[in-house]
Automatic annotation (TrEMBL):
<keyword id="KW-0812">Transmembrane</keyword>
<keyword id="KW-1133">Transmembrane helix</keyword>
<keyword id="KW-0472">Membrane</keyword>
<feature type="transmembrane region" description="Helical">
    <location>
        <begin position="38"/>
        <end position="56"/>
    </location>
</feature>
<feature type="transmembrane region" description="Helical">
    <location>
        <begin position="102"/>
        <end position="123"/>
    </location>
</feature>
<feature type="transmembrane region" description="Helical">
    <location>
        <begin position="68"/>
        <end position="87"/>
    </location>
</feature>
<dbReference type="InterPro" id="IPR007352">
    <property type="entry name" value="DUF420"/>
</dbReference>
<feature type="transmembrane region" description="Helical">
    <location>
        <begin position="143"/>
        <end position="162"/>
    </location>
</feature>
<protein>
    <submittedName>
        <fullName>DUF420 domain-containing protein</fullName>
    </submittedName>
</protein>
<dbReference type="Pfam" id="PF04238">
    <property type="entry name" value="DUF420"/>
</dbReference>
Length: 167
């Protein structure tokens, strides 16, 4: 639990500090493709989350574990890609106007805010499963799952909305 608490604080702090860096590192032009990879990662995560949910409802525990482990690993890959993009590229500005602008920022802000909330929930849920604390796992999953799914889906929506504005 100490590691979970530490990661739950350190990751958001590092990401916030990283976003504040004005001088970006030149990691090459390939990093401009990372937002598209992130969109795919969020899509696959959403699919695995729904699939994992359906599997557990059918009592297919081993397949559920595999699906959720896949979603968990995609979360780690997302973080690596997100950091890689933002330490090497300026943030892309949304160019939409009117209602679409308000909708985009609602989606983005709720996505970012809940991503910080869901991190410790997912880490705990995953930990409880792997340490065979199933009652605690089920209780935490009921909270973590809908937030994680929302974060994954809104990540896809935000990506699709800003995609036309990438250079």
């Amino acid at each position: 639990m100490v590691w979970i608490n530490l990661l739950s604080v350190v990751i958001p702090v590092v990401v916030a500090l990283m976003l504040g860096i004005r001088q970006k590192f030149d990691l090459g032009a390939w990093t401009r493709t990372l937002p598209h990879a992130i969109g795919v990662i969020n899509t696959l995560t959403s699919i695995l989350l729904i699939y994992g949910f359906l599997l557990i409802k059918q009592g297919k525990i081993e397949q559920h574990k595999k699906a959720m482990t896949g979603a968990f690993l995609l979360g780690g890959l997302f973080l690596v890609c997100y950091v890689g993009y933002h330490i090497s590229n300026q943030s892309t500005k949304f160019g939409g106007e009117g209602f679409m602008r308000y909708l985009y920022f609602f989606v983005l802000i709720s996505h970012i805010g809940l991503s910080f909330v869901v991190l410790p929930l997912v880490l705990r849920t995953y930990y409880f499963s792997w340490t065979n604390q199933m009652a605690r796992h089920r209780k935490m999953a009921k909270i973590a799952f809908p937030i994680w799914l929302y974060v994954s889906i809104t990540g896809v929506i935000a990506y699709l909305m800003i995609r036309p504005y990438y250079a």
